[in-house]
Each structure stands twice: as structure tokens, then as C-alpha cells.
Protein 1
Amino acid sequence: MKKVALTGIKPTGIPHIGNYLGAIQPALKLSESCEARYFIADYHALNSTKDPAVIKRMTVEIAAAWLACGLDPQKVLFYRQSGVPETFELLTILLAFTPKGLMNRAHAYKAMIQANAASGKDPDEGVNMGLYTYPVLMAADILLFDTDYVPVGNDQFQHVEMAVDIAQSFNHIYATQAIKLPQAVAQDNYKTVVGLDGRKMSKSYGNIIPLFASEKQLRKLVMKIVTNSQSIAEPKDPDSCNVFALYKCFAKEEQVEALREKYLAGGMGWGYAKQQLFELMNETLRPYRLRYEELMQNQDYIYQVLAEGSQKARALAAQKIASLRKIIGID
Ligand code: ADP
Ligand code: TRP
């Protein structure tokens, strides 16, 4: 029996190169060896976004991004969280097994109340109950599908551990193994992709290169990557260079070595290195960009894929909920 890998993708922000290399690509790789269940975590976005147009647009864009990058909906169960309302029934069940103190320890919530306190505000300002109980909703997403592995970034490990705590509490009280205990897995070949300014590429730093940037926009962004003020003649250190760091994410070993030698030899200007990076990225990303644009022209198809996936996911979820309702005496 194949192991079940499940992950949720929040429909916030346009996908960037860091998301692609750090999350999308490794998750698609994992789907070759596991039974993969990947979903758009739309209700998670409601905690922070109250603009219906934004949620709608992001849902389609993120789904298109995954499909453009090669997610095959015949092989991966691809659905919307909102298309599986059993999730919210499980949430209600799990809330009864979640100590309030556990939620107080969640990093995201703690960071918010600390930031409020630091700026002299009421600690709970801007904290809604959805945000506060967010780890329980995430636990419901995971536990509903008998998940073995949860591929996520390190920032999400704590949430998966909380899902395990909640599941164990349920299993212990009813002396059952009805809820499978999941395990967070670091994204295979995970490395931090640097942004235009050399910090981690992140939408919160405003230093991203969008995955589907047009050729023109891509060139403009690559030319903006921060370098030092060394002259053309001077030999340069590839290992401290942001352009080189990004080049390594896309290039084959021979290409990396060839560019490294140019850096070390001197006589190479930043413009040259950036042009090499631009050409390589453009060539690599062009097919994805074209596929993405095509999908965005045909949004009915995207909705249809998600609706079909959600229907299949619901059938699985309904069985799980029925078995849990028996255990708790609400059947
Ligand atoms: P952002 O930092 O832009 O808000 P998210 O937190 O939404 O990005 O990222 C979603 C996932 O994409 C992360 O869990 C992580 O796996 C991956 N990711 C994001 N930024 C990077 C990066 N710079 N390098 C590698 N992976 C990244
Ligand atoms: N919390 C995750 C994030 O912020 C998204 C998410 C929601 C998720 N439900 C999940 C991830 C279930 C893995 C499994 O990125």
C-alpha cells in the first residue's frame, strides 16, 4: 500500500520561484511514490483576507500554477478545502479534544500577540478565532484523509505536531487507533532560494521573482538583483553572489562550473552574469508560463478539475466521518 502524502496550499500571493523550487517541485516529485492529496486551503485564507474577489482570483491562480507545473489531476487528488465540508465537521469534533493551552503555544498566534504587545496595543488586537484555532482546522485537513506524510516548510512543522497531539488525545480517550498519526516531512531537496536583495525570497520581503513573470518582467527583475560594485576587470566570488545563487537553482553542473570560472577569472561584468541567468531562467520557465496562460484563458476547466477532485475527496471524507461518528456516539 502506498503512503498518503497530503498538503494544503493557501490561496494567497502570486507564486514565486521560491515556492516553485521549495514547495511545488518537491511535492510533485513526492506524488510519484505516494498517493498524493493536494488541496487549496481556501478557508484558511478567510482568516486574513475579507475581499471575495481576492480569494476567488487567488484560488484560480494557485490551482492554475500547480496544473501548469505538471500536477496531473488523474494521479493526484486535487481539490478545494471548501469542496469537502466534512472537514468542518471534523474540526468541530477535534475542537473538543484540543486544549486551549495548546493553541496559546502556536508560533503564528504567539508572534502576533508579541508584536501587539511590543507596539503597546491590546495583545489580542487583530486576532480572530479563526486565526487562533487555525492549527485545529489544519489538523482536520490532515486527519480526515489518513495522512502519513505532510510535505511542508519548516514553519509548518509545529502545526503538524499539534495535529498529532490532538489525534493522540482522541485515540487515547476512546482507546482506538482510528485516527492515523501523520508526520511532517521537510521538502525533499529543500533549499532556501534567495530573492532580489539576497534575503530569503518571500512575498513579505517584496523581493520575489514571480514564477510566471513575462519575459520582459523577468529580464527587468533579474537586472535588479543586488550585486556589489566591483569593476568588470576584478575577479569575483561566485559563492557570495545572489546572481550565482539563483543561477545554481536552474543550471546543470557543467553550466555552474563554466560560470564559476568566468567569475574567478575576472573580466566579467555583472551585466554578463545577469544575462546568463535571465536566458537560463527564461528558457526553463517559458513552457510553464505558456501553459499557465493557456489555463488562465480556460478557467472553467480549472473549476471543473477542482470540482471533480472535491467530489472524490468528499467520498473518502464521508467514510472517515461516519466511522468517527460511531466512535463518539453521534451516529
Ligand atoms: P512566502 O514566504 O513568500 O510568504 P509561503 O510561506 O507562502 O511564501 O511559502 C509556501 C511554501 O513555499 C513554503 O512552505 C516553502 O516550502 C516554500 N518557500 C517559500 N519561500 C521559499 C524560498 N525562498 N526558498 C525555498 N522555499 C520557499
Ligand atoms: N498552514 C499551511 C500554510 O500556511 C497551509 C495548510 C492548510 C496546510 N492546511 C494544511 C498544509 C494541511 C499542510 C497540510 O502553508
Protein 2
Amino acid sequence: MILVTGGAGFIGANFVLDWRERCDEPVVNLDKLTYAGNLGNLAALKGDAKHVFVHGDIGDRALVESLLATHRPRAIINFAAESHVDRSIHGPAAFIETNVVGTFSLLEAARAYWAALPEVERARFRFVQISTDEVYGSLAPGAPSFAETCAYEPNSPYSASKASSDHLVRAYHHTYGLPTLTTNCSNNYGPRQFPEKLIPLMLHCALAGKPLPVYGDGLHVRDWLYVGDHCAAICAVIERGRPGETYNVGGNAEMANLDVVRTLCRILAAHKPGCNAEERITFVKDRLGHDRRYAIDASKIRRELGWSPRETFESGISRTVRWYLDNEAWLAAVASKEYQKWISLNYAAQAA
Ligand code: NAD
Ligand code: TYD
């Protein structure tokens, strides 16, 4: 049995679905169901007795302790977080609450549970922290990609909160011996991603006939990782990773935002003849403190754990576009009033 936190969000839900397909091992899924959590993501698991969903907060120590005592997981995989940079600029407090204080509370519960396990179970227990490449800061054009040895230089409230939690995870290994592992991945994309992040937001705008808002000059660079490849990397880390280590995970797909959006429009037009979204690309005011470039050196996880991404950007984005076209009802359901409020708030600021 494993305990997944944040498993109703984008990556967590994909992970839980893949896990249940891949093996017979049960999953307890603890999620607070914030605006980003969506039980609809887990609809395929309805009736699956080996998926136990629990509505709650990673910061609720008593709840987490009782889940650990009842289910006795062999691993905790911590996806739960506030995850959107723009929201962290408008309201950083929730990021500190969940990403820093919540992760601290989860670590405390994990430490007490792990320390009391019988020796064999204690030796095989793992705490996996899902982090981001954004903790490394911003790269100049042509500078070497982020390696695990790079210093943390976070620039946004989001990345600073993730960096803080990663430091706590590291300290719990160093000080108490808790068998922790941390993954630092690049920008994920794929099915079930909330339409506040670049790719699903642009898809949403493209399908709704709205302008596609590109920040600044559109030449900011990210590496793009298909979510299914990321989930496979996490499985490799759970099974074969060395406690105390960190692993960078990337998609071998460094691209400028404008190229991402143009590719998306081209693929959408191929699936939906007459869709002229590219003409609606609109440059808007830049994000505050916008990191110029992220790039991942994933040679460690390839060398040590034999993982590399299967999807190219072209194949992954085609699968993603297909999923959103086949699931327009999902997109309509998540585009709630709260979502419209966020879009008005963020893009009014970007237009000003
Ligand atoms: P998401 O925002 O889609 O989902 C986060 C989930 O966590 C939601 O279901 C939410 O309800 C839940 N949650 C939030 N606060 C909680 C709390 N206090 N207790 C329990 N559950 C809580 O995020 P995502 O894109 O799936 O990201 C998952 C993890 O991966 C995050 O830790 C994020 O920092 C990291 N990450 C994401 C990306 C990306 O491109 N999406 C890239 C690098 C790292
Ligand atoms: P995002 O998906 O928010 O991920 P992150 O900021 O964590 O990398 O944004 C990806 C890139 O796309 C980033 O450089 C900001 C840019 N972007 C836009 O140009 N327009 C948008 O509306 C959004 C949401 C992002």
C-alpha cells in the first residue's frame, strides 16, 4: 500500500491512474480538493476497492497519523501543493501554508510512523517529494542545464516555497535518517491539467475562440515533460532510487513559449480543420519576476535508474490535444465561476 497526497490534481491523478493500471498495490489518496483538485480526474477508479480517497489536508497531523496507522503504507509520495506561479504572485500565503508548513507536518507524521516500524518495513519505507526545476532559478541562454548539484536560487513565491519544503525533506534525511527522495521535474503537460497553466489555458482559449495571451516577448524557455513519462520516472525512483538522493526529470524538449503555442495551434488545426487559433496569439504584459529559461540535465536518472522519456514533444502534444478534444465536458466543468474570476484577475493585471 502506498499513500499519495494531492492525487486529485493533475500529476497526482495521472500517477494514481497509472499506478492502478500498472500493479495491484492499493493506494490511499489524500487530497484537500482545492480549486485544482478534481474528483472527476479519478472517475475511472469508481468501484476500485484498492483506491481509497480521503478528503483532507496534509497539514492535519491527526488525520495523517491515523491514515498511516490504519493503512501502514510502504511509501508516501507527496504531490500536494499550491502549484501555479501566477497565483503565488497574487497570493503567496497559501503557498507557505501548504508547501512549507503542510510538508513540515507531513514529514513529522512520517518520521514518527517510520521510527516505530519493525526493522524490515523501516528499511524499505520511502518518502518521495515531488519538486520542480524552478527551485534552481533562471538560466542564461546557452548556459548548461540544471544538474542535481546546482544551487537552489528560487525567484517566485511558488519556487521559494517548494525550495523550502525540499530543504526540510533533505534535513529529515540528514538528521533523522528518514529515507527521502526528491524529484525535480520540468514543466509537465498532458491530460487533466487545470487550464491555468500554459498548454491547457491556450487550448481552452483556442477552443473558446478567445485571444491566446503570451507573456512578454514569448521567448521564455521551458523544458516540456509528458505527464505519463513523469509518472514512470516517479515509479523508478520509488523502486530503485537511493534514499537521500535527488533526481532531475526532463522531457528533452526545450522550447520557447511562442513555439509551444504555435505548435499547439498547428496540431489543433490538424484535428479541427478551420480552427484558426494561431491568428489570435496576443502578446500581453510580462509576469513579474518571470524566469527566462529552465533546462534539465536528466543524465543521472537515466544512468542510475534506466529512465528516459518515451514521448517527443510532438507525440505528447498530439495525445494531449486529442484528450482535450475528446473531453470537452471535463474542460467545461472545470471552467467554473471561480476559474473565470481568476482569469479576470490575472489577465486584467497582464493587460494593464
Ligand atoms: P495541481 O495544482 O494540479 O494539484 C495539486 C493537488 O494538491 C490538488 O488536487 C489539490 O487539491 C491538492 N492539495 C493542495 N493543497 C493541499 C493540502 N494542503 N493537502 C492535501 N492536498 C492538497 O498540481 P500538479 O501540477 O499536479 O503538481 C503536483 C506536484 O508536482 C506539485 O508539488 C508541484 O509543485 C509539482 N510540479 C508540478 C509541475 C507541473 O508542471 N505541473 C512541474 C514541476 C513540479
Ligand atoms: P506555466 O504553465 O504557468 O508554468 P511555469 O511558470 O511554472 O513555467 O507557464 C509556462 C510558461 O508560459 C511561462 O514562461 C509563463 C508562460 N505563460 C504565458 O506566456 N501565458 C500564460 O497565460 C501563462 C499561464 C503562462
